[in-house]
Each structure stands twice: as structure tokens, then as C-alpha cells.
Amino acid sequence: MKDAIVIGAGIAGIASAIRLAVKGYRVTVYEVNAYPGGKLSEILEDGYRFDAGPSLFTMPQYVDELFQLTGKNPGSYGFEYKRLDVLCNYFYPDGTRIKAWSQPEKFAAEIAAKTTDSAESVSKFLAKSRRIYCVTNHVFLEKSLHRLKTYLSVHTLKSVLRIAEIDSMRSMNQANESLFKDEKTIQLFNRYATYNGSNPYKAPATLNVIPHLEYHYGAYFPLDGMNSITSSLIKLAEDCGVKFLYNSPVNEIVVKSRAVEGVRVHNDFHSASIVVSNMDVWFTYKKLLPKIKAPTRTLNQERSSSALIFYWGINSEFPKLDLHNIFFSANYKAEFETIWGHKTIYSDPTVYLNISSKYKQDDAPPGCENWFVMINVPSNQGQNWDELIATAKQNILRKLSLALNTELGPLIQTESILDPRTIESRTSSYQGALYGTSSNSRFAAFLRHPNFLRGIKGLYFAGGSVHPGGGIPLALLSAKIVGDMVSSAD
Ligand code: FAD
């Protein structure tokens, strides 16, 4: 039996391990932390449970596929989910509230009722979003962009013939301003750029593909919380024979005669013919491959935005809030200029409030709610975070208290904080970026690091910092691409 080693038990590391085990490899995963999941983990505090990172679950079929591959039933591993009727509740500074119904016609009617835009303009937008998905999906997401084979398929040829439809020559905001009249509708759709940590005023309108994923494929809630994606896949991997070793930092990938030989953990050598790095690619080169010439241009791509999150145990209940809630800033453009231009936190930030106890009651004590309060912030470049966080907390509390007509400060029972520094140190994500590199350039898809290293046999990369990008669905697709490459190399 051949040995394979995976560095990191993030979601892409776990998925890669399952795929390699199914192919017959004896797989060991080395994880530096004492727990699995990386960004997709949980925090338990004073009777509250919080999902630490991702809160929005889309494209569950990529998780299901791992169970199907192994012939197992996800339900018996604690992985079940339900489709959401309401994707998000939007609160605007002037008191307007828009419910983003998952059913496109109902959502279009809501936009027509609450803004000066028509239901037809929403349908037109969603049809366009669908077309971008059809052109980009097979080529940009499901295949390596860095192998000749990808460009020799019928799918690719069809996509190339329709390339103008992906709308890459103007920004997302320009496209949205050309279709909608109302600032509220434009702000709502511009927000989708933040789904991969980008700036709607710079990112190509190709990112308008993202709403199609929600309005067509749906958004979901795992019944046992987001962390059940990690915990169920860990059990599945273990049942496939994968061995997870925690508190085990890999400190070198050993390469000889242009092939991987294994890794060093605590300076002990472990041999393998396949090594998959799920560690952020920037740190993989800097820390594990110091003798290999790093692809500087690729590694120096602008990173995605980071986040500041307050996990608050709230001693009250708010019936007008749902699972996903957004409280918009009054000036979205100024907010993004502050984050991306001035690399600091905006004084009136758009606040995302996720409350999983709305759907999973035991996530908070009776009569209480578990609030995950997040704002977009720049990646870590040595800012004075302590000072910025203290100010941001006051601004967020003032904003939410006003919108909810309740003094929130006295209701906070417990508090934990995650910021760009701790995201960087706990998950080895360079600069604390949530999604690897940003998609602010129209060439971003091509400039992401490939899932392999040309000229080094047996070395692969999976995770949000490499092709096809960040977020749970894409991280899972990176593992799928790695699995396919290993098969064709066998
Ligand atoms: P990571 O989760 O980054 O895991 C990498 C693992 O490698 C870590 O466990 C780390 O400890 C380990 N490691 C690193 N170096 C070593 C080493 N030398 N030796 C051993 N182990 C090592 N995505 C969504 O789809 N929906 C969302 O709503 C969403 N919201 C987010 C909110 C936040 C606050 C954050 C932080 C992320 C969010 N994301 C969201 C993005 C998503 O979480 C990530 O894209 C995805 O989880 C990345 O998974 P990964 O496998 O690339 O690696």
C-alpha cells in the first residue's frame, strides 16, 4: 500500500484525505492544532456554542459527494441539513428591511415592493448570473486551469466561444449600476463580492455568478451547526482508515531528485510518495519548502479581506432577527475605500449577524441567543488592532442598538474575539485572509497557485489559498481536482 500525507486538517485537507483513502492510499493527516477543521471549527463557552468561521453553507452536494464516494449515509455520521426559505434579512440605515426570499419570484416581488427597481430587473439579473455560471463552472471551478488537458475539452471550447458573457471587462458595481436604479438593490447585490473577500468596486462583474448559487442551488443550514461538516467528515475519513495526528506541525516537505519523499514533523521523518499541503500556499513555500524557488508573482497576489468577529452570548431574544442578518452601512463605497485603500476599519461598518440558535436551540441557554457578529476588515499588515477593535466594538454596539431599539451592551454575557492576527496564527493563513487571494483583478482566477507544482512529482496543494479559491465549496473542489490528478498520475 502506498503512503500519502496531508498537511493540515482543514476542510480541503480532510476531503483530500478521504479521496486518497478511497483510491487505496494509506493516509496520515498531520494537524498543528489540537482540533480539526481549521477555519471551520467551533467555540464552546458558558453554555453557548458558536461556529468559529463559516456560517453560510452552499453547494452541499460537494460534501454529499464524499459520502457517496465511500458508499456511506451522511445521516448516520450526523450530517443533515435543511434548505433556507429566507437567505438573508437586510436592514438599511433608513429603516427599510428587505427579506431575501430564496424563491426567486418572491424575492423579486420583495425588491419591487421595497425599492424603486422592478421584479423584471431582478429576474434579468438572475438570468445573467445563471449564464455566467454555465460558462465558468466546468472550466474555472471543476478543473485545473494549469493543465493543457483542460483546454482540449469540448466543455472548454464551448465556454471559450461564450467568453464575452462572463462580463469580466467591468466591475461588479458598474454592472449592477447599469441594471438597477435603487442604491439599496445595488448594495444588496454588490455585497456578493464579499463572499470571497473582494471589493465590488474593483472585482469583475463575473462575480455576479455568486447569487446564482444561492437563488438556484440554495443556501442551507446543517442541523447540527456548521461544525458538523467537519466532525462528520472526520468520522468518515477515520472509517476509511485515515489517521489524524494532532499537535503535529509539519516543518519541512522533503524533496529529492524532483520528487517528494515525505515530511518532517517535530524533526522526525515520515515517508510518503504523495504529499498534499492544505497549509496556506504562502506559508507552505516560506516554511516548508525553503529550498524550492517560490513563484513570487503568484504568492504576491493581493490577499482577500479578513474579518473581525465578536462571539457574544446575548441574554435576550430578538424575534425580528433570523439566521443571517445584514445591517448595511450608509455609504458602501466609502466603506470599501477605507478597507482596501486605507487598510483600516470603517467607522460605520456593514455588520453581519449570524444566530445559529434560531435553528439549533441548544446553541444558547433558554431565553438567550448566540450572536456571531462580523465585519469585513483589511488583511493583517501590522495595524494597531487592539485600538481598532476597541473602537469598532463601540461603533457596532451603537449601530445595532439603534437598529434594534435596545441597549445591547448590558445583554452581553460572554465574549470571544477573532481578528486578523488570530486568524493568521490559528490557521496559518497569510495576513489572516479569509479566502486566500482576492478576486479584485479579472486575471485572479489564472494567477491563483495551481493544485500541483510543475517538476516536483507527488506534491499537491488543496485549500482556499489555491485554485479554484476560497470558501467551503471551492476548497472542496480543490480536493477533488487533487484526487483526479493523483489518479491520472498513478
Ligand atoms: P483551513 O481551514 O485554513 O485549514 C488549514 C489547516 O492546516 C488548519 O487546520 C491549520 O492548523 C493546518 N496547518 C497549517 N499549517 C500546518 C502545518 N505546518 N502542519 C500541520 N498543520 C498545519 N466559507 C464559506 O463557504 N462560507 C462562509 O460563510 C464563510 N465564512 C467565513 C468566515 C470566517 C470568519 C472565516 C475565517 C472563513 C470563512 N469562510 C467561509 C471561508 C472558509 O472557512 C475557508 O475558505 C475554508 O474553510 C478553508 O479551508 P482550507 O481547507 O483551505 O483550510
From TrEMBL:
The keyword Lipid metabolism does not apply. Pathway: Carotenoid biosynthesis. Residues 11-480 form the Amine oxidase domain. Its EC number is 1.3.99.27. Keywords: Carotenoid biosynthesis, Oxidoreductase. One of its GO terms (molecular function) is oxidoreductase activity. Pfam families: Amino_oxidase. Belongs to the carotenoid/retinoid oxidoreductase family. This is 1-hydroxycarotenoid 3,4-desaturase CrtD.
